[in-house]
Design goal:
This protein is of the alpha/beta class. Helix content is about 30%, strand content about 25%.
Length: about 200
């Protein structure tokens, strides 16, 4: 039942243009793209309209892009077709609460502004040794900007780093912003071991 209500909610948001209705990648990913090895297999989690998946495909990756909303996935697929990237991105509708992330599969995983704490260890195991996780989420400082925002979707300051370390990842970059300027937490972490790609 939760999957149906989540899917309906996001389909409505994307259908009305209330979600992030664009095909652009996150600036954080673009700024740190030099850490990515060319090619390989990537995963875009809660991809929405697929801006990050399309960017990674353009960088030479083959991408699995997963989301609960078929409305967003259809729009992303059409944009991939328009850009000539359709053979490099596989768009899949999944319930991320239940989706079994394939272990040892991905050279890069990106998760932007989707918080699912239970999913995090599965994502860490989904990386190849040497693979990178890029993640950003709102933290509790966001309540100063949006007091009505649900705390269920907010990290504690420092929590994303702790989640990465608890999952056995090596933290390469971490920032929580400042209380005055930023309410987002940013992480780049690597699964230890020699790259197998």
């Amino acid at each position: 039942m939760a999957e149906v209500s989540d899917r309906a909610r996001w389909n409505r948001k994307y259908g009305l243009g209330e979600g992030p209705a664009h095909f652009e990648p996150q600036d954080f990913l673009v700024r740190h793209a030099g850490l990515l090895r060319p090619g390989g297999l990537a995963l875009d989690v809660a991809c929405g309209f697929g801006g990050n998946a399309l960017y990674l495909a353009d960088q030479g990756y083959t991408v699995d892009a997963v989301d609960v909303s078929e409305v967003a996935l259809e729009a992303a697929s059409a944009e991939a077709e328009r850009r000539g990237l359709r053979d490099r991105v596989r768009f899949v509708q999944v319930d991320l609460d239940r989706w079994p992330v394939p272990p040892d599969r991905y050279n890069a995983i990106v998760v932007f502004f989707y918080l699912n704490r239970a999913l995090f260890p599965r994502l860490a195991r989904g990386l190849h040794p040497g693979g990178l996780l890029f993640q950003a989420n709102r933290n509790r400082r966001h309540l100063k900007i949006r007091p009505d925002f649900s705390p269920d979707y907010l990290l504690e300051v420092g929590e994303l780093r702790c989640m990465a370390e608890a999952a056995g990842l090596q933290v390469l970059h971490y920032a929580d912003g400042t209380p005055e300027r930023d309410s987002d937490s940013f992480l780049i972490a690597r699964r230890p071991g020699s790259p197998s790609f």
